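name: query_chain
kind: protein
chains: 1
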Amino acid sequence: NRLLMQIIQPSDYSSTHYYTHPHPSPKFHLETDMATVIGFSIMVFIGLFVKFIHIPVNNITVGG
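structure:
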């Protein structure tokens, strides 16, 4: 019985901690989402630039 209580008690604390912990505001979520979208957009633009402009031009100039 004592071993069972030692196993159950930490999980009980973690679930209460989750519900009592202050969650981020919707404004913070929006700012984080926008930063993520901007970052992914920049990475996609760089990838497309390398794929469609840098590699073909490099192949033409080097000739191989």
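note: The two ends are 75 Å apart (CA to CA).
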